[in-house]
Design brief:
Distance between the termini: 52 Å
Order of helices and strands: HHHHHHHHHHHH
Strand content: under 5%
Structural class: mainly alpha
Radius of gyration: 20 Å
Number of helices: 12
Largest sheet: none
Amino acid sequence: MFNPESVDALKDMLDMLPAELMNAMGMNFGSTLLTFLSGTLYSILLYLFPMILSVVINHRLIAVHVDKGSMSYLLSTSNSRIRIAVTQAVFSLMSITAIFCWITVLTLITSSAMFPGLLDIKPFILLNLYALLMYYTVNGICFLASCLANEARYSLGLGAGLPITFVLLQMLGDSGEGLEWIGYFSLFALFDPERLFAGDSFAYMGMSVFAGLAAALYTLGIIYFNKKDLPI
């Protein structure tokens, strides 16, 4: 829990823990409410709860229907494959957008009630936009995996395996100076809240790359689903 009067004591306590562990967890609390939120909610926790939802939701949008054969009922209607895939892709994007909108609004309301005036609202909203664009890309990976696979297990394996691999690479890269190069292979290396708060152009380039990758992944998924031979 953030407490402006005990920030220094919290930092002293955390300094007692191994630096490699704290870096791997992405926890850097800073001294303001904004940096505290960034170092907690937008560190390791950001890679857990939304990612689980992304994997499950996108897996069920295409791959589960194909695996169970229920896709044949959808295709027997007057809707084309493209229309079905686009509809599922829109739902995929809307679901993750709703999650981040809920997180943003809830945090703003809670912060204004418990710590009035302490949260820099504009950087916080920008931070959530940054994280949302990153998750559009994660969603795109999961959606593409769902379109590629004819069996649910392969969709889950690819859709969950690739993002989890990126998380592990990021944690290894952050755990020590000698391993820093490993982190560059992670998609999440483009997500750096500290550089966003500093006004560094790197963060805005990261947003652009996330948006471009997401568009490419969703488009590839839709095109592949339209062309593929379905075992139904």
